[in-house]
Fold:
Amino acid sequence: MKRHLPLSLLVLAVICVQQLTRATGTAFYLTPLTMAAYYSLVIVGLCLLMGYAGQISLGHAGFFAIGGYLSAMLTTKNLIPFKENSLIALGDRLGLLIHGQDMFGEPFLLVQPWAACGCAILVTIVVAYGIGIPVLKLKGHYLAMATLGFGIIVYRLALASPLFGEADGISGVPGFPLLPGLAVSGDFSSRVSNYYLAWGMVAFAMWLLVNLIHSRVGRALRAIHGAEGAANAMGIDTARYKLNTFVLSAVLAAVAGIFLTHYNGGIGPSEAGIMKSVRYVAIVAIGGMANLWGALVMGALLNIMSLRGMFGSYDDAVFGAILIVIMLFAPQGLLGISLPAALKRILRRGA
Amino acid sequence: MKRSFAAVILFAASLTLSVSMAAAETIKVGAILAVTGPASFLGAPEARTLEMLAEELNAKGGVNGNKIELVIKDSGGNPEKAISFAKQLIEEEKVFAIIGPSTSGETLKIKQICEDGKTILLSCAAAEQIVEPVAKYVFKTPQKDSHVVHAIFENMKAAKISKVAVLVSNTGFGQAGKGQLEKQAPEYGIQILATEVYDSKATDLSAIVAKLAANKEIQAVINWSVEPAQAIVLKNIRQAGWNVPIYQSHGFGNIKYVQAAGAAAEGVIFPAGRLLIADKLSDKHPQKAVLTSYTKNYETKFKEEVSTFGGHGYDAFKILCRAIEQAGTNREKVRDAIENLKGFVGTAGVFNFSPTDHNGLGFDSVTMLTVKAGDFVEYKK
Amino acid sequence: MTLELFSQYLLAGITYGIIYAIVGIGFNIIYNTTGIINFAQGEFVMLGGMTAISLSQWLPLPLAIGVAVLIVMLIGALVEILFIRWLDRPSVLRMIIITIGISILIREAALHIWGEGVRSLPYFVGNEITTVQILGARVSPQVLWVIGVCAVMVLGLSLFFRYTLQGKKMQACAANRMAATLCGISTRNMVTLSFMLSAGIGALAGCVMSPITYTQYDIGTGLAIKGFTVAILGGLGSSMAAVAAGLLLGLIESFSVSVVPLAFQDAISISLLLAILFFRPHGLFGNKDAADLKEF
Structure:
């Protein structure tokens, strides 16, 4: 029962906040809240990877971008010129494509959002396994460098390919209809439903991850994080666990990317950049490396503040400062600080 | 007793405050600009210009007695921030209009949001798609890329150049230029023999220059970029001993780039607004007064040279103010006023808006300039 | 491909390569002494250039550069004392995160001090279009200066590490920290010294490459990535290897332009980094066993 307390609190808080905004007529807060929810999906996935499995990833924005860009590209690229292609024709027969006419009366052929979503997730899984196998064999700096390199390659590819809109990214991404009456889109009218959808997904992800941590898998992960050699000696297939955790966190990031892209109606190369990845790592660090709830709370808070422009021109500097301060004084995260202990440490160093 | 006394005071104070505020309505104008980040040479001068103009205006009592409250948001060139700020400015701050964003990528992402929110958007970005198809509330102030390309190709035709190489930077500005160049080249009988995209943060481009220089058929190079790296291209071309004529875009419109490229910038030909040669214009030129006053005020206040990018911010602000002057504080009326504004003298040219033209600038908004002895001068054959 | 074009690609490759190498050398110094990869190395390069440019308004060029190098060395020491000294046997993760944080802070500080504009030092010899002819191709004399400074650095460092007491102390720390402490070497001070040295080298690199690449508040990140690609490519720890790796990477980037669109050039160097990490993490010239022994 105790395990489900935080989750119930989350659901309660989500509902309360929405009712509050309705009561005070400040419904516009729901926008940054919804966007922050999707970013938090990435962050909790990264927390699982970094805090529990102990693998640093400086390129997680890359997975977010893969999800977002693929779903954006597939739902906006007109396939009429390729009508004759057998793959496209097959997709059409399976009902995966949408026929329509644009405002000039020209016919267009697009991929259904569901199909695009599924395709994007599939590609993410393939890439995550493909990258994960060699990367997770590395340790320390080499692992960090490799994940950084992966993130940069995704960024470069997004920036250089006309298919992905080059520097301007992709705009005009349609809404993603999930159920009759419920669509992931940025329309003013569906704001409340999108808010609940986003936080509903976060709640679901948290339920999934919390159960994972308290299961055999979670214990195995913690063993790996603590002492990989010993874990191996105990018969835990460390490579497999690390890989699967990597892929899970990648899929979470990609799903966040897909949904946020439909919500925003577009995506740009900045979502794949190094600064985004660093930001995710900073938030995991401040939340407490192995603290899912800490990461979630901090993620929501900091992203909302950033999206509302509270940090002004110092946005990046704030995250840089957070990184340093947390790593120096509170490596267990903000919620793990014990002030007397920190003071003792400072005073001891000074001597 | 004390508490209720305090409450009464508070109530009275807020009442007086709201009354006094109702007397002179401030007009909130939002701005989403890339003040920091990779597009900061666009956004930072724009932000400074807007602040300067707002201050100037409020010192004179505002527009029709209404002061302007400027809310500038730094998007860092990130589209997702632009989206979030746009929604925030429209719904929460309830701004009268939004100036910006600085880059085309961001503008395209918030175009629909501003349409849906019935908020006037005066973009400082150059892409054609911002005003084509025309959206009721969306306008832009920079010159059309197609006019700039037209000016370049006209000049080339006169110089009997028919085979060129195109180098663009990997930003939205470069990409848009590439699109227009490729689209219009056949109309002028010009063949693009090579197109290459270079990184806006490149440190050296000798290799690509060597590859292009080896192609003896290339008669001229078009270098389309708004970043400092365009100066590196100039240096590398001249260092390679390649003496072809170099054409640049209006993104070269900052004397700092000429200083950076030094001797390599001599003789570069590019179309740009007349802001850069303000002091050399004849006094009878319709833009002379606006340009010289902007230059003087900006350079005195910020101790740095004026650039055409800041000018886009200037035009947006002044157009908005003129429309408010004419039509009052009703959004729809102001929008109509902008749409029907004719003969408005700005830094980029003389604007003539219409329901089908939300940019308002024509071929004559750019003139061919060149660099002589480290300074911008008008190009004479 | 004519000889002239080939030589031009060659010289371009050397230009890129020597710039990467000179940044990569800085990584190795700190890595050798502390096992830390300092993500803020690129910012030292940027600071060197920016400071020298500001100083050159009042001082003659060589003096401006010298003073700038000294100032950045002090900044390097300050960074170490303020942020690194504290740490009690930090994990790799913590170190990486801290140095990333430091690099962000330095960059934002530079933005607010110097603004977003681009600047450069004047060419040491000639101007923007003077060149020297080598093998039928032309190259700016500034590139020769960069090569020269790099050579002096490598030579100076190897002499320093082999023949001076401080150098040997630093090598002792690199080999085995515990043993070094037992020998009476103040490992704390050696770490500070390594940061100072690395910062100074970075600053000098920033000054000498400034006319070629321009200096702007955000050039640090890109250079750092190229720098540690090169350091890892060569095998972490060896300056000569970094130079060789740098030249190799530069040549690959330069010649790649003849077959691949320029837009993908950066993706190539990163792919190379990944390939090395996957197949030969100890680098082209590194020793596998020695690398395995290293703490990080």
Q: What stands out?
A: The CA atoms of residues 6 and 293 of chain A lie 8 Å apart. Chain A has one domain: 20-83+113-332.
